Fold:
Amino acid sequence: MDDRRSPAGLTALSVLWGATRLVLLLCVFKVYVFPGPDVTTDVSVIYRGWYDVLGAGSFPQGDVTWQYPPAAALAILSPGLLPFLDYASAFFVLALLADLAVLVLLLTAGRSPRGALVWVAGVPLLGPTVYARYDLMVTAVAVAALLAGVRHPRVMGVLAGLGALLKVWPVLLLAGARRRARGAAAVTVGALAVLSAWAAPGAFAFLSAQRGRGTEVESLGALVFHVARHLGWSGEVRLNYGSVEFLGPHVDVVSHAALGLTAAALGWLLLWRLRARRFAPHTLADAAFTAVLLFTTTSRVLSPQYLVWLIGLAAVCRCFPGSRMGPPAALVLAASPVTVLEFPVWFDHVVASDALGLTLLFLRNGLLVAAAVTAAVRLWRSTVPRAAAPPAEPGRDARAGHTPVSSR
Structure:
């Protein structure tokens, strides 16, 4: 029997979701003070400030912390839908509703209950940060796009296009998509881009807002400088462009190397798309999960909330019984509690590059790299046919030490 459809299975999932989400709400509403720095200030201070600017009819021009495409304004303005609550409270309630929407989408997908379980169990492992960023809302759009993609490619394209203008990364959902989905996404992006530019000035100021970025302290490349600090490296850790980054000698080299790895990941995806021949219903989700894993791990910024993207896509993969993404999904889930330990619980140790901070980063980033490599290998093997064995050469058996059978 399908546990997802059984009353007992549905009740167990609902109770687990309700209990864990209550804990998250208690944390963001500060009934319980979660260890480490206050993760809700992004909402109560930064998002709230952007809300005022956007409400006045302009994008945050000149604000280097605004690094998002124009549809992000929808997420920032959304708390206005609940005028009876203060901004932060409304945002947290909407994050909860987005979380619930993902659960409903996964439960009604009609395939395997494992996807819903991955979502229910995975999100709270990231701690209260997941409700204090708008990434959860973007993930809800991405999950809806992937689940629609098998039967309704144009609907997927529209949702992926909207997601791309919310936070760029959902464009990677199209890695394994049909031409109709890609066409619908292009039309959606174009239409929304024109509408955004017409609606308010500064819609695309974000494109030039990251020129002076360093390497964020939680990224894969940052491990170079965490170790180098113990060997006399003379750089510094500083809040820069809205995140804590390494700045100083050779940071530009590591940042460019990260961009090179991202370009290599893109090249691999293009090669895979050209070579892939076996497409099953789960391939679309498997390819999207793999693509986002590759780009997340190679990025020069790897913020904790990025893992909610991976958990959402892993959950969609696990909705399909034939998906090959079980092991990389498990690795992402394993990386999630380590992530909440490195931020916010022991973030001061990460910033200090001490033994505990280094251990947490090497473990978390190592798990994500292992997940990315495993996903890429499994995607390739499940979709790209092996080269046919060359025909046997005359006399080959004899050269191998076997005497051909005589015709006598």
